[in-house]
Amino acid sequence: MAEQLKERILSSGIIAICRKIYQDDLRRLTEALAEGGIRQLEVTFDQSDAGGVQRTAEAICDLCGRFPEMDFGAGTVLTVEQAEAARAAGGTFIISPSTDLTVIRRTKELGMVSIPGAMTPSEIAAAHYAGADIVKLFPAGALGERYIREIRGPLGHIQLLATGGVTLENFGAMLRAGCCGAGLGGALCDKALLQAKDWSGLTERARRFAAIVQEARS
């Protein structure tokens, strides 16, 4: 199952990052993004919220039941316990901001796709050899296209997911530099559109990002 999900993630090239969005807003956002071609969505753990683990797990469980055609996982996963909670809720992938070998190994034991965050060559290689399926290059926007091209030289065998500061303007360049796709937060799940409940605007935003993937691969 994990290998098939990895291939779906690589094929779509986009994981939506939903941070501090819950209940009906999250459902409507997911519906809007799905209409725009998004198939993978991360619900982020809020580390500052004492009830964040339960809220995120409940949100993942709800989405899995409502959108069986999509893949859902948890983001900002810092502990084994959070990974286990996401799996129990039906999540199928784990995304972290850091390279924690214990979390990577437990994620793989749970049969989930592991996407830890890394920045340096040492972190990227360590994550890969610990079992990561894809490595989240973070913060990709600050590192830039040149960094991606240069790091892909010695580490071209490792799939890199650009995350942090990816926009409509630089996404294509990051794909051409060698990233397999991107984790998209505010640039896709735009706060102003969410506050206005502009679901059609969010669908259009999703379509524009999906079109960039198709163009970069054509």
Could you explain how this protein is built, in words?
The chain is globular. The chain has helices at 2-12, 23-35, 52-66, 80-88, 101-109, 121-129, 140-152, 171-177, 191-195, 199-217, and strands at residues 14-18, 40-44, 71-75, 93-95, 113-115, 117-118, 135-137, 160-163, 181-184. The two termini are 28 Å apart. The protein is an alpha/beta fold and 218 residues long. The chain has one domain (2-217): TIM Barrel. It is built from 10 helices and 9 strands. Strand 6 (117-118), helix 6 (121-129) and strand 7 (135-137) form a beta-alpha-beta unit. The chain is 50% helix and 16% strand. Strands 5-4-3-2-1-9-8-7-6 form a 9-stranded parallel beta sheet, sandwiched between helices.
How are the SSEs ordered, and which strands pair?
Blueprint: H1 2-12, E1 14-18, H2 23-35, E2 40-44, H3 52-66, E3 71-75, H4 80-88, E4 93-95, H5 101-109, E5 113-115, E6 117-118, H6 121-129, E7 135-137, H7 140-152, E8 160-163, H8 171-177, E9 181-184, H9 191-195, H10 199-217
Parallel strand pairs: 1-2, 1-9, 2-3, 3-4, 4-5, 6-7, 7-8, 8-9
How widely separated are the two ends?
A: 28 Å
Give the count of helical stretches.
Answer: 10
CATH topology: TIM Barrel
CATH class: Alpha Beta
Q: What is the number of independent domains?
A: 1
The Rg value, from CA coordinates, equals 16 Å
Low-confidence stretches: none
Rounded mean pLDDT score: 97
Q: State the total count of DSSP E strands.
A: 9
Percent range of helical residues: 40-55%
Strand order of the largest sheet: 5-4-3-2-1-9-8-7-6
CATH superfamily: Aldolase class I
The main pleated sheet reads as: 9 strands, parallel
> What percent of residues are in strands?
15-25%
